[in-house]
């Protein structure tokens, strides 16, 4: 029995055995083990809740897989609200015929990523659809965490004079997925940055005092995310292109393929917008952490062109950086 | 533009327009409108959290659609913990080419079901996969609610002497899906029972005092769910087959198709296990509610055969009712 069968999703005896064998082995904890219709949680104070479905293709890629990505993506969205991620639920949609070895590799990776991120998987659901009705495996994760700062960061809290930082290089995840999918190889390997950011965020919250905005530039990349923030806060954002960290391998790959790394997804990076006088302290704690060693101050919040993002180019020109138009890369996460 | 396009899932400008036009129109509220990476919620006391992915085929069926079902399924799982459902997240996986009119009908139905159930949809996510990589639309919903009773009902709390009730007829949802999918029609119409149960549950909690177990017999049906409870509580359960309510149209359809309604999914029914001396009071409040008008006491919790479910047949024999074996009906929810 080496493939996922349709009756593993039936809710009957086969699903029970399947779930107990595989999911409990890798994801089990005392809350999940109760096997009730819902998990019982104890949460203090205001709570952040976020959901994401993952359909990344391929399901295994340099730097991660759909399982670890499904943990990182959602715990990071929770962390961006200044909240310590605590609990995750996971919903699997499996294609009949998926090799069980692939599924187990994904589930084991989820379990490891959850332990590393300090979160517990407290409820789950598995559906199996017939061959051809889904592509291998889709995973939804929904996370909750306790907000530990007041006021919490918010996309509408960027203020004129704030500094804009990123915690590292842009575009790694997007290019890693594309190059794997298309069988491309570059001079230097391109690896996804998929990682859980709460540890880094916690240090930033302590160093910067009041962090105005935290956001992870996933789908749509840095360009789209900054446009969202400029719109929500009704401010302008001005970037210095030369200060935006881009890994040379990613820059090279993007040049060859005609892609802009500022619109490629990141899965282990955050944008931090902090009061201008806290920029250097924030940069220092970011760079002291392995996940933030390439952090940089990339721009500032301005009164001009509210709702828009402008960029000073290396040649001294200025251009507007709009939202992503069309689809650069489907199924990137 | 009358079909879902791949770039609606890009995270860029097209997704933003699409999300704002369609999802906010039907699901919008002040929390969702903040458009941050996570919703900020205020919850008191212990919280129940549950997740479910919906892959039902067809997406429209007599008595509901995948949108209302995705709300009912998850709010019911939360309610079964004695918790008032408050907030839902939803994650959509859409197939490129899905008619926008179908999507809007589903989303509008979700919005209506959420309003009727008194819950708000506070966070969402949309992914679009290429044609053939998913079948029309899959929806994950994850819900949280505040547990209002102490101790909360739990699958491990059935006690010898307890009465076992169901809130209505068994098998309606499963047979409605199957007959729609296969284009079958019976003498009388078979309609899904998909409904939100919190209102009914709240009355049961008040009438029965300490409700030991609440469970909705969805996938796997009554037979499987009672086996789960017998196992979790290490007790036997004894049913009287003649007392289990089955709609005549469902009984007739099942007889024709060789299906057992006790293993068919329900989406608007609950099992209530209460102290024996509270059985009649519980039955009375169930029957006074339109969703519980066919409620019945169907059996009791016994010391014999712990972990197993036995049933007295109309002819006076006894047989064990095991868990569902194999898959009666894929993609029933």
TrEMBL record, chains A, B:
Q: What is this protein called?
A: Hydrogenase expression/formation protein HypE
PurM-like N-terminal domain ranges (all copies) = 36-147
* Record Gene3D superfamilies: PurM-like C-terminal domain (3.90.650.10), PurM-like, N-terminal domain (3.30.1330.10)
Q: PurM-like C-terminal domain location, by residue?
A: 160-309
For this entry, list what GO says about its biological process: protein maturation
Q: Which SUPFAM superfamilies match?
A: PurM C-terminal domain-like, PurM N-terminal domain-like
Q: Which family does it belong to?
A: Belongs to the HypE family.
Q: Which InterPro entries match?
A: HypE (IPR011854), PurM-like_C_dom (IPR010918), PurM-like_C_sf (IPR036676), PurM-like_N (IPR016188), PurM-like_N_sf (IPR036921)
